[in-house]
Hints:
Strand content: under 5%
Mean pLDDT: 82
Low-confidence stretches: none
Distance between the termini: 11 Å
Largest sheet: none
Number of domains: 1
Amino acid sequence: MFPMHSSHTKGLLLVALSALLFSTPGLFTRAVAASGWDVIFWRAAFGILFTTLYLAWHGTLKSQMSGLGKSGWANAIVWSSGIIAYLQAYKLTSIANVSLIYGSAPILTVLVAWVWFRERPRNIVLAASLLALLGVVAIAGGSLGTVHLAGDLLALWMTCTVAIGLSIFRKYPQTPAAGAVIMASILVLPPAYYWGNPFSTMGSEILILAAFGLVFSVASILLSEGSKLLPASEAALMSNLEVPIQPFLAWIFLSELPPRATFMGGALVLVAIAFSAWPQKRKS
Length: 284
């Protein structure tokens, strides 16, 4: 039984749950015929609505938005570009490719946190990150020749924004997490409206994207809050759970069958996550 009083354990559980929810965007994006920009618009609009209602219910809306500060605005700007890149990538490349590229997030986060504020990861976390990278390499090896360059580059930039965002929250834990999520979604609305045609989207698809907005809002809040309780490298590593889950969901619901290497690499990522978390749980 997990010691729930432990902030480290709580952080692990929050980030792991967010990873499970973050495994669904590919399904939502592929479930509609709307363009990438229209998906971005409606996902952001409903994300703003649900997150605002959540904060108003808890009486923290004013403090979340007024307390953003420089770190909150920086995170919002970085994450807004990540939202655009993330959702467009699903329209341009496979779900498996997006997830495997995201698998490099732990390594990028380690580098950002180490270079920026000299947070050197525990040796076991560094070793687990390298193991996760091997898993990503294994997955990529089975996808050679099938990768859409534009989609993969967008997925890579999304991964960079995650690494930067997690490091910002770790460096400035007082940053309002939900406020940054709302502001990031607000920032994507103008370009999505300009380059898309969101109000021509069918009503049935808008309902699907409303569910997408709810899931994404909950996942973003859980990731932001959980990352405050963990070293940046561990937060990114735990969020990597979605790497093996996304291709599996794509196979089950979309018949998008990834190569055997994807399953082998996903197993390595899961082992890396468990390997990283186990020593701290024993200590707790």
